[in-house]
């Protein structure tokens, strides 16, 4: 038997030990390969979104590769570490360090090549499904045909081969084989009781709590600096939650003897304490991965769903056209007529009207309100506009009363009080008692703000207005515009000249939806990847520790533990290891959704519930699957 | 009154088609209440198989075992597990303590499985741990105490729920002579005080000399049986004599340790 054969036989005859490691590598290769197939798909080149999508796919590829690198590195090192005893035995028999390294690299190469080949095969099987989903989400009218380019295979094989070699070198480099004595003693020494510090446990709770507070009270203006701060608190907070607080908590349970001594609790809790301590870092990792997955998919889905509400918020009127100056009126009307013809041609129902407006300057003692350009509307025109759009108008404005429209950001910014405001045009001047209201008319490029004044005031200004102070507005109401969103966006979204300004909800909606759906696709894909990785990390960890558990349960069996009780204990423990990270990740994500909610007017409750439910179903299925394998294995020693 | 009756017990390893190995042949054994018997024999004689069958950890190929009036050979696995933890106590060579639990918690384990009241648990724990001289270590962890202390913990665990019968598998196998003496003295004293029936498998003649009767088996069959008189020292010599008669591997003959 040559040395190479020895390595090969090691792998071949010890499949169980290598299987979980192999599967984790296989998983990484499969995912990468499916994306590579899309990148090199010939049909992708024919679509106009090519650049945007392709850079999205390439970006995803880079993230997946980087992530796989860490994932495989983790799997390799934990796999190698789990075999310390075997290496100790080989060292006793006289294997040299360099021979041991060679053996490890050989083994890793064998597994690496096997998982590349298997990954590409499995990836090919799923490619059609992936292309179907891809085509559906990107709105390609026919499904992309099944095609696997040699380039995709080559790239995957090359990159992953390099990855496996680099990883095994890195692991071998950092491997410290225990002395022979340590290895043999290692089998007998029991583990020390997990310790914890009260200070760190309470600090972890405080850090997480503070991060939650920051998230809860975040808004448009402080969200970006806060995001960094939240991460600074939440990540170490979560880490110590697992390494310190969890131990403190189980110790608390142990102290309550009435609870602790009842039936199976003692066995469950004491073993769990060790499992939590041993797996603290892993659970932390799983929590962060899941939280990232939940948050990004929830936020993306929330944004995608909120497009209609946000359109209404930023563009209150369905469609408007505005121009400034009497000289432009004729051209403007001409343009408006053309637009309406286009609407008729496309059979989009609409009602329309024209309204007068003009630009004035403001004067105020408060700097927030001084020297602004304001577009003013007469109350009657305003009322008609609101009726056209089927919105509620404010009560009638008389005398020197006025309503100044500001968007909601202005409220948050805490503006100066609106007192002693006066407006002036070239030839006219008036003091007003203005009140703030939310935006109800579309803004435009000619004035900073929009104001509703009484008909008398407006008429006085309008009569005295100079040529370039006059503005014309044409508003259209398009019921059920969502149905015609693409057509309306096409008609309204083209440049006239700088004197015209067009605004439509449909345009806002279509733009937002389009940019979101690409981001959504890649975001969701990567999120799901993170989530699956988190699940598989849990699975591999369980698989590695199963020998110890077999011993543990065999001991209990001899004393008289029934199958049913074993299942109960195992389910409880696995359940806690599975669902604690899930639960904490969900709570983290809920606060992230709260940030989003603070910034959006649309409710994100439904989208976030949907996203979390979907993840829960997947996670639960995964849990049941793994629990069944696990208890079936344990049953063999019972 | 007989606590344990085994009739025509046989155990065959290996499948019907493959190589068969008969570890135990038509073995009969009766143990009276309060008796302390030792089972001895060379390696491969079937003594551990016998203990595993009697204690229901393994199932016999044929034969019948009755413990405390119940024919356990007809029980289901689940019922057996429950029967074990109610009526049996176990002492193993490797102690079989759970290292996730403290010494005290290990002792309490059978009581928690049998759903006993917490106040009662505490009383029993303090009584038995004092009797065995391990009262001061009940809050320690298994890796903090010596082998002798671990085995006494196992004895406490075996006895705490007042089982009908105790099975001990090489209880002194991992211990030095001083610890062996302590463990065997505590076991025999407690056994006398609580009148618990004990079946012990050992190939240590010193440990066996604490019992009241030694059953020798060879090749899965009864070889000889000797009873103890008044003196443990003479009994020890008797055991050595039978052992040399029994032959077997010289490895199994232990040096005298005092």
- The ordered string of helix (H) and strand (E) elements of chain A is HHHHHHHHHHHHEHEEHEHEEEHEHEHHHH
CATH H-level superfamily of chain B = P-loop containing nucleotide triphosphate hydrolases
What's the story with the biggest beta sheet of chain B? 6 strands, mixed
CATH architecture of chain B: 3-Layer(aba) Sandwich
Strand content of chain A: 5-15%
Which structural class matches the secondary elements of chain A?
alpha+beta
Radius of gyration of chain B: 18 Å
Approximately how much helix is present in the residues of chain A?
Answer: 55-70%
**Spatial ordering of strands, largest sheet of chain A:** 2-3-7-4-6-5
The total of helices of chain B stands at 8
Describe it.
The complex is a heterodimer of chains A (638) and B (258). Chain A has helices at 3-13, 15-39, 50-81, 84-92, 97-137, 150-174, 180-186, 198-216, 223-255, 257-260, 265-278, 280-314, 329-345, 379-388, 408-412, 455-463, 485-492, 505-544, 546-559, 563-599, 605-635; strands at 319-324, 351-363, 373-378, 401-406, 421-424, 429-438, 449-453, 470-477, 500-504. By secondary structure, chain A is of the alpha+beta class. Among the domains of chain A are: 1-189, no CATH class; 201-263; 319-477, no CATH class. In chain A, helix 11 (265-278) packs across helix 20 (563-599), helix 12 (280-314) packs antiparallel against helix 18 (505-544) and helix 18 (505-544) packs parallel to helix 21. The longest helix of chain A has 41 residues, at 97-137. Chain A is elongated and about 105 Å long. The model of chain A has no long low-confidence stretch (mean pLDDT 81). Chain B has 258 residues and is an alpha/beta fold. Chain B has one domain (33-61, 76-252): P-loop containing nucleotide triphosphate hydrolases (Rossmann fold), CATH 3.40.50.300. Helices cover 36% and strands 25% of the residues of chain B. Chain B has a 6-stranded mixed beta sheet with strand order 6-7-8-3-9-10, with helices on both faces. Chain B has a 4-stranded antiparallel beta sheet with strand order 2-1-4-5, covered by helices on one side. In chain B, helix 5 packs parallel to helix 6. The longest helix of chain B is centred in the last third of the chain and has 18 residues, at 177-194. Chain B is globular, with a radius of gyration of 18 Å. Classes of the chains: A alpha+beta (638), B alpha/beta (258). The A-B interface holds A 189-193, 257-258, 261-267, 270-271, 273-274, 552, 555-565, 638 and B 57, 77-78, 81-86, 88, 90, 92, 96, 98-101, 105, 108-113, 115, 118, 121-122, 141-143, 157.
């Amino acid at each position: 038997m040559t040395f190479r054969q020895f390595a090969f036989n090691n792998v071949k005859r010890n499949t169980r030990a290598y299987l979980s490691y192999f599967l984790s590598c296989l998983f990484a290769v499969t995912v990468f390969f499916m994306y590579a197939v899309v990148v090199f798909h010939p049909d992708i080149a024919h679509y106009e979104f090519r650049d945007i999508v392709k850079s999205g796919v390439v970006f995803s590829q880079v993230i997946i590769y980087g992530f796989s690198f860490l994932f495989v590195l983790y799997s390799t090192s934990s796999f190698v570490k789990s075999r310390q005893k075997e290496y100790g035995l080989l060292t006793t028999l006289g294997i040299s360090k360099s021979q041991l390294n060679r053996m490890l690299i050989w083994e890793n190469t064998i597994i690496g090549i096997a998982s590349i080949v298997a990954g590409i095969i499995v990836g090919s099987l799923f490619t059609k499904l992936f292309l179907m989903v891809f085509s559906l989400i990107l709105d390609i009218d026919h499904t992309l045909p099944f095609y696997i380019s040699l380039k995709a295979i080559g790239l995957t094989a090359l990159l992953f081969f390099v990855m496996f070699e680099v990883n095994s070198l890195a692991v071998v480099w950092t491997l410290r084989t225990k002395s022979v004595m340590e290895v043999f003693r290692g089998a007998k020494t029991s583990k020390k009781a997990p310790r914890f510090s009260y200070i760190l446990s309470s600090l972890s709770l405080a850090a997480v709590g503070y991060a939650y507070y920051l998230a809860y009270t975040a808004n448009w203006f402080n969200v970006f600096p806060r995001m960094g701060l939240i991460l600074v608190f939440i990540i170490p907070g979560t880490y110590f939650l697992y390494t310190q607080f969890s131990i403190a908590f189980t110790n608390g349970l142990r102290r309550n003897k009435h609870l602790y001594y009842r039936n199976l609790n003692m066995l469950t809790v004491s073993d769990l304490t060790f499992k939590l301590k041993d797996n603290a870092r892993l659970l932390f990792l799983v929590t962060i991965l899941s939280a990232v997955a939940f948050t990004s998919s929830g936020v993306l889905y929330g944004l995608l769903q909120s497009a209609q509400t946000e359109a209404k918020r930023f563009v209150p009127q369905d469609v408007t056209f505005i121009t400034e100056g009497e000289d432009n009126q004729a051209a403007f009307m001409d343009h408006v007529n053309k637009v309406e013809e286009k609407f008729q041609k496309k059979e989009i129902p609409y009602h329309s009207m024209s309204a007068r407006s003009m630009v004035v300057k403001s004067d105020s003692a408060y700097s927030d309100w001084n020297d602004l350009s304001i577009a003013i509307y007469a109350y009657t025109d305003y009322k008609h506009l609101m009726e056209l759009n089927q919105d509620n108008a404010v009560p009638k404005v008389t005398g020197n009363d006025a309503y100044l429209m500001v968007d909601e950001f202005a409220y948050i910014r805490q503006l100066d009080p609106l007192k002693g405001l006066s407006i002036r045009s070239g030839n006219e001047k008036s003091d007003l008692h203005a009140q703030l209201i939310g935006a109800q008319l579309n803004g435009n490029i000619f004035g900073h703000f929009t104001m509703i004044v009484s008909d008398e005031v407006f008429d006085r200004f309008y009569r005295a207005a100079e040529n370039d102070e006059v503005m014309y507005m044409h508003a259209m109401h398009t019921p059920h515009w969502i149905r015609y969103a693409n057509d309306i966006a096409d008609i309204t979204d083209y440049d006239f000249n700088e004197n015209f300004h067009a605004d439509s909800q449909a345009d806002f909606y279509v733009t937002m939806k389009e940019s979101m759906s690409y981001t959504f696709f890649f975001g969701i894909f990567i999120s799901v990847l993170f989530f699956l990785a988190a699940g598989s990390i849990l699975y591999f960890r369980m698989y590695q520790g199963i020998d110890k558990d077999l011993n543990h349960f065999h001991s209990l069996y001899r004393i008289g533990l029934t199958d049913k009780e074993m299942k109960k204990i195992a389910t409880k423990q696995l359940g806690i290891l599975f669902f604690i990270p899930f639960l904490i990740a969900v709570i983290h994500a809920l606060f992230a959704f709260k940030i989003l909610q603070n910034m959006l007017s649309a409710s994100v409750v439904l989208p976030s519930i949907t996203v979390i439910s979907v993840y829960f179903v997947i996670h639960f299925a995964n849990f049941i699957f793994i629990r069944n394998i696990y208890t079936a294995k344990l049953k063999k020693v019972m | 009154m007989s606590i344990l009756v085994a009739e025509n017990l046989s155990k065959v390893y290996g499948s019907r088609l493959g190589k068969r190995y008969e570890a135990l042949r038509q073995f009969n054994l009766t143990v009276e209440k309060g008796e302390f018997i030792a089972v001895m024999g060379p390696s491969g004689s079937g003594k551990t198989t016998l203990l595993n069958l009697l204690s229901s950890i393994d199932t016999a190929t044929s034969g019948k075992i009755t413990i405390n009036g119940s024919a356990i050979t007809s029980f289901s696995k689940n019922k057996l597990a429950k029967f074990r933890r109610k009526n049996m106590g176990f002492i193993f060579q490797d102690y079989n303590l759970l290292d996730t639990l403290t010494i005290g918690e290990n002792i309490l384990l059978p009581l928690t499985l049998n759903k006993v009241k917490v106040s009662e648990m505490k009383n029993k724990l303090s009584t038995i741990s004092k009797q065995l001289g391990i009262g001061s270590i009940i809050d320690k962890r298994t890796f903090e105490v010596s082998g002798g202390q671990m085995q006494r913990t196992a004895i406490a665990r075996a006895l705490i729920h007042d089982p009908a019968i105790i099975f001990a598998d090489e209880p002194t196998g991992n211990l030095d002579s001083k610890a062996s003496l302590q463990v065997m003295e505590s076991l025999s004293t407690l056994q006398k005080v609580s009148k618990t029936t004990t079946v012990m498998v050992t190939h240590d003649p010193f440990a066996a000399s604490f019992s009241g009767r030694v059953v020798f088996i060879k090749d899965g069959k009864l070889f000889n049986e000797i009873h103890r008189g008044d003196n443990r020292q003479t009994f020890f010599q008797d055991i050595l004599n039978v052992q040399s008669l029994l032959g077997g591997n010289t490895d199994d003959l232990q040096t005298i340790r005092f």
